[in-house]
């Protein structure tokens, strides 16, 4: 039984689910009031849109490395924004701890989950055995006979 046949679609679906969860949380926060915060509101909407787009594209089929990299970038961007908003601030905006609850914790779990799933997926792709190739040989030539004169 080929476990890779089942593992790749499962990882693809779970990654899409975690990205969609992150997108939903950011969209909900945008609607619930972040849209009125200058610069931050549009960034939350952008994060939600990018998360939903990556999730949808992942579900379409086996994605190329570029899409998996983009999905990782979306998750890393959200985590970076989360960390910055709790330390140095982002465009003058700061929050503390896991507020707003429960969205902050859900977003953290979704984004870390996305990164772990993408890393697992990449490792399984690089460790997948490649089909053995037949050695390339020169084509055999049939001798040509020239009729005697």
List keywords for this structure.
149 residues; mainly alpha; 4 helices; 65% helix
SSE arrangement, N to C: HHHH
Strand content: under 5%
Tally of DSSP β-strands: 0
Number of helices: 4
Rg, rounded, reads 24 Å
Question: What structural class do the secondary elements suggest?
Answer: mainly alpha
Helix share of residues? 55-70%
**Termini Cα gap:** 65 Å
Can you describe what's shown?
By secondary structure, the chain is mainly alpha-helical. 65% of the residues lie in helices and 0% in strands. It is built from 4 helices and no strands. Helix 3 packs antiparallel against helix 4 (103-127). It is elongated, with a radius of gyration of 24 Å.
Summarize the structure.
With 149 residues, the protein is mostly helical. It has 4 helices and no strands.
Describe the secondary-structure layout.
Blueprint: H1 3-31, H2 40-60, H3 65-86, H4 103-127
Helix pairs in contact: 1-2, 1-4, 2-3, 3-4
């Amino acid at each position: 039984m080929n476990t890779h046949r089942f593992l790749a679609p499962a990882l693809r679906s779970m990654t899409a689910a975690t990205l969609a969860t992150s997108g939903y949380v950011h969209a909900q926060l945008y609607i619930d009031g972040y849209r009125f915060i200058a610069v931050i509101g549009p960034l939350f909407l952008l994060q939600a849109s990018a998360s939903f787009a990556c999730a949808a594209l992942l579900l379409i089929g086996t994605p190329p490395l570029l899409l998996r990299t983009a999905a990782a970038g979306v998750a890393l961007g959200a985590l970076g924004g989360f960390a910055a908003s709790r330390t140095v601030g982002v465009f003058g905006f700061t929050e503390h701890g896991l507020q707003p609850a429960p969205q902050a914790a859900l977003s953290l779990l979704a984004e870390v989950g996305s990164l772990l799933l993408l890393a697992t997926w990449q490792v399984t792709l690089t460790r997948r055995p490649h089909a053995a190739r037949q050695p390339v040989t020169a084509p055999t030539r049939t001798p040509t006979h020239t009729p005697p004169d």
